[in-house]
Specification:
This protein is mainly beta. The chain contains no helices and 4 strands.
């Protein structure tokens, strides 16, 4: 995980139990959670602001990116 403004490394997060190959990593528009797509596992992982897993959701094959509408 990298700090948005500087790109500096913050810490490593082990997401292997939830899937492989994290790709799309976004913070919600309200800055209340992060979401990560796991490309080779077809999974979306929702993390709180402390990078704890809140929820996982199965997706279609090979999710790559993601986006939010303004309301999140």
């Amino acid at each position: 995980m990298r700090a948005p403004a500087s790109g500096a490394h913050i810490r490593d997060i082990n997401l292997k139990p939830y899937g492989l190959r994290p790709r799309g990593i976004k913070v919600s528009p309200q800055h209340t959670f992060y979401s990560v797509t796991m490309e080779t596992s077809g999974t979306l992982v929702k993390l709180d602001l402390n990078f704890n897993v809140i929820k996982t959701v199965s997706t279609a094959a090979k999710p790559y990116g993601e986006s939010f509408d303004r309301s999140g």
